[in-house]
Amino acid sequence: MRIWLDGALRDAEGARVSVFDHGLTVGDGVFETIKADHGRAFALTRHLERLTTSARGLGLPDPDLDEVRRGCEAVLDANPMALGRLRITYTGGVSPLGSDRGEAGPTLVIALSATERRPDTTAAVTVPWTRNERGALTGLKTTSYGENVVALARARERGASEALFANTVGALCEGTGSNVFVVLDGELHTPPLHSGCLAGITRALTIAWAGAKETDLPLDALERAEEVFLTSTLRDVQAVTRVDGRQLADTPGPVTAEAMRIFDEHSAADFDPR
Ligand code: PLP
């Protein structure tokens, strides 16, 4: 496996990031996960824009997007595979323990791993912990993912593949690594960005292509919804069969099936939708 580290393609085996990297010691970093289909990175322009937004939110210097593009291309070329997860990690860089971010400049790592197409359906659970819709990191894709790791472990214990959060005022927010859509009275809704959810790229494309409305929803909308689905880079549109104890009928339902069809059609026609 060949990866990109600080300006050059290297063997993953021998590549080294400092144990004093601020990304490792305090989670001071941002990242993107991108779907790589036969060597092509889906929606790369949008992912690079979000990487910049996240970096700015954390006070990191803007990533050099020419280098990031070059690195992505080099990693994709060096590791041919059918379906891959391309991961860009950009951190605060090397800094002595207990000190602020160092002067050495950020660390950039681009890596790829093979993955399988996700199943079209899955189960989800709600968790008792909340997303903070007004936090310093809200809406940024940072490497501080510990809370998501804990919530996802809870979901897996309960036979589900995703955990859904409410925010601090009890509104439906998002999953640990996905955005959530619900069908109420035949209409498709998803929580607005002010709920504290990540500005998911699959979410934005689904809103644009399938015409979902952004609506403030209470968590218990999940109990009334006729259909529920998740969106994310590696899931695309994934129907939810069960939320907590409630089984949803005929999954994927008609609105979800149509959103899946529209997403597949549009994404096949335009690999870098702006
Ligand atoms: N919400 C969170 C917390 C995520 O980590 C992700 C993706 O990793 C998403 C939503 C979905 O975003 P995207 O569609 O850009 O993958």
UniProtKB/TrEMBL annotation:
Its EC number is 4.1.3.38. Its cofactor is pyridoxal 5'-phosphate. Pfam families: Aminotran_4 (PF01063). GO terms for molecular function: lyase activity. Pathway: Cofactor biosynthesis; tetrahydrofolate biosynthesis; 4-aminobenzoate from chorismate: step 2/2. CDD domains: ADCL_like (cd01559). It catalyses: 4-amino-4-deoxychorismate = 4-aminobenzoate + pyruvate + H(+). Keywords: Folate biosynthesis, Lyase, Pyridoxal phosphate. PANTHER family: AMINO-ACID AMINOTRANSFERASE, AMINODEOXYCHORISMATE LYASE. Homodimer. Belongs to the class-IV pyridoxal-phosphate-dependent aminotransferase family. This is aminodeoxychorismate lyase. It comes from Streptomyces sirii. The lineage of its organism: Bacteria, Bacillati, Actinomycetota, Actinomycetes, Kitasatosporales.
